[in-house]
């Protein structure tokens, strides 16, 4: 189902609608269906955090946001965001949240050319980290996203850092396998 925004280009959302749309965009990553992404993300949507994600996440529009959700869901079970505060002004909303889940699938990171850079194989470990998401809206939809995340805290909780010799070996083998499968 497609969403037609009641706003025309250049109109501002009220603060409540602005913050609710930003809150919704963060939560969709864990539980939203493909059609939900069309209802929340603008056709020109750009995720400024996609540089190490799969190539299909680096595009524009709801399909790129959906690709990010699929990538995260493939790596983490019981994925969820708990929103603690949301602020909004003009066309920008800030969402303070914690992200939690369990590392049950390989996390594959990519280089600037879209090739497999490194893989962190599943550890089975749970994690919970704080994040701040910035969402710019246009025409009532999220058109831009960037974030500040506790990646080191997440890596530590998941056993990626500091890595044990055995886990380094598993990373090497998983990376080699992913590169071979990408060819």
UniProtKB/TrEMBL annotation:
It comes from the Bacteria. InterPro entries: Cyclase_SnoaL-like, NTF2-like_dom_sf. One of its GO terms (biological process) is polyketide metabolic process. This is SnoaL-like polyketide cyclase. It comes from Micropruina glycogenica.
